[in-house]
Amino acid sequence: MRAFRFCFIVLILVANNFIVSADSATDPVEENDTTFHIRDHSFLLPQALPAGHYRHAIALYAIVPPRDWTLDIVKAPMFNYSGKYTLPKNFSLQGGISSIIVSTRINAGPFWSYSHKNFHTAVGYQVAFNLGYLSQFGFSTTLTGWEQQPSLTFGYSFDKTAVILRGDLYYTTAINVSEGGHIVKFNDQFLNGYSFTASFEQRLHANRVMSLGLQMDYFRYHIIAWPALPVNSYRYWIPEFHFGLNF
Length: 247
Hints:
Mean pLDDT: 84
CATH architecture: Beta Barrel
Structural class: mainly beta
Distance between the termini: 31 Å
Low-confidence stretches: 17-31
Strand content: over 45%
Largest sheet: 10 strands, antiparallel, barrel
Strand order of the largest sheet: 1-2-3-4-5-6-7-9-10-11
Radius of gyration: 19 Å
Helix content: 10-25%
Number of strands: 11
Order of helices and strands: HHEEEEEEEEEEE
C-alpha cells in the first residue's frame, strides 16, 4: 500500500507537469525563455535574499514508520504548508505546519543565509510544537510536546534547477500526555535524533517550481506515530518522501 501511494503521488505530479506543458505548448517565447532563474523562485534554496519578501510552498510528506511502530492510523501522507519572510542582513523567519489531523507539527524560527555565486548556505534554529489527538480505535488521548531544532543547509543553483542538502538536530524538551482527563508529564529532556535531507528543485511551468526530496530520520519517535511513544532509548531509521510545489 505504501508503494502504491508513492507511485500515485508521483503520477499526480507528472500528470500535472504534462497538463501545464500542453497548455503552454503554443507559446514559443516560454520555450526559449532565458529570463527565468531558479534563484528567483526557489523556496528551499538557503540563499541570501533582500528584506521584505514572502515565499511559501505546499507539500506532501509520505512517511514510512518502522515496523515496530506499525499502526493502521498512520498509513497516510502528511500535508505541509511552509513559508519564509526575509529580514535585513540576510536573516529570515521560516516556519511551517504539517498535519494529518490526528498528528500535527508546527515549527518556526530564525535563519541566517549566505550566498556566493551559485553556492548558498544557511544556519537556522526553530522551535517545534507537536500535537496529537486520537479519539478512535479505543483511544481517548491527547499529546503535546516541544522540540528544539537547529539546522544547517547547503545548496547549489543552476539556471532552472537546484540541489539542496540539509541536516537537522531534534532535542525534545517536554512531552505531556492526557488520557481520559489524566495528564502524564515526561519531564526528562532527551535527544530525539537527527535527520538528513536531499532535495531537488525543477522549473515546472512559467514561474512555478516543483521540488522532490528524500529525508532520512533517525528518531526515538515521530509525531506521525505518536501513539507508539518510546519506551526505551532505541532510535530507528524513518524515510520520508517529499513532494512540493513552490509559490
